[in-house]
Amino acid sequence: MKNGSLAVEGGRAIAPIINNLLNLPSFAIRIGTQDWHPSDHISFAANHPSPNNKPFESFIQMNNPAPGKEHETKPQRLWPVHCVASTKGAEIIPEIASTNKLDILAKKGMDTRVEMYSVFSDAFQNMDPSLHHKSVDADITATLRGKNVTDVFIVGLAGDYCVKYTAIDAAKAGFRSYVVEDAVRSVDPKEGWEQALREFGEVGVKVVRSDGPEVARVRA
Questions:
Q1: With contact defined as beta carbons under 8 Å apart, do 180 and 210 qualify?
Q2: Could you say which EC number(s) this protein's record lists (predicted)?
Q3: Fewest C-beta in 10 Å: which of 75, 102, 140, 181?
Q4: Residue 141: strand, helix, or coil
Q5: CA–CA distance, 214 with 55 (Å, rounded to integer)
Q6: How many CB atoms lie under 10 A from the CB of residue 92?
Q7: Mean pLDDT of residues grouped by 10 in the chain (220 residues)?
């Protein structure tokens, strides 16, 4: 949402590009993702005591929710309350929702105990569905393999968080992973996106454009 608590600058401007991609004939499946957080989600700054609860600035230590791994911790950035389940802020923008082009809309980030940027795994890289089933309502790896998908094209928000981690996990899951740069916007379009590009290079994620040769193959 343009005036949402975690709005990404220029985010709605990419909707026409995304819709053009959704209209291409050769995609085996079109999947959308939707943050669907409980109101007591661990990433919400409002759920932590002051003074270390400043959105965007503060970090907390988060524990791995997977059985037997609870001793594992990692820092988690705190965010404004956003995308709360069953609220307007969690809805897909009408410019995209009204096209009815999405075959699946996966809700993620549903486990109050852990962050989930990627649709494939939670913040602790628990990619086994038995370990992250409380966080997401679809097994995207199995869905893609069931459609014999080999190449995954990723667009949307935010380039330095959900897009980044989804693209990296797609590559780790064995898919050829592409990020369509002109159909992406980031929370931090400079340092955050530059860091994402470095991480893409480390795992073989390719950054392409919607008018490039990689996407042209899907137009055929």
A1: yes
A2: 3.5.1.19
A3: 75
A4: helix
A5: 38
A6: 13
A7: 70 94 94 97 97 96 96 97 95 92 96 97 94 92 97 97 98 98 96 97 97 89
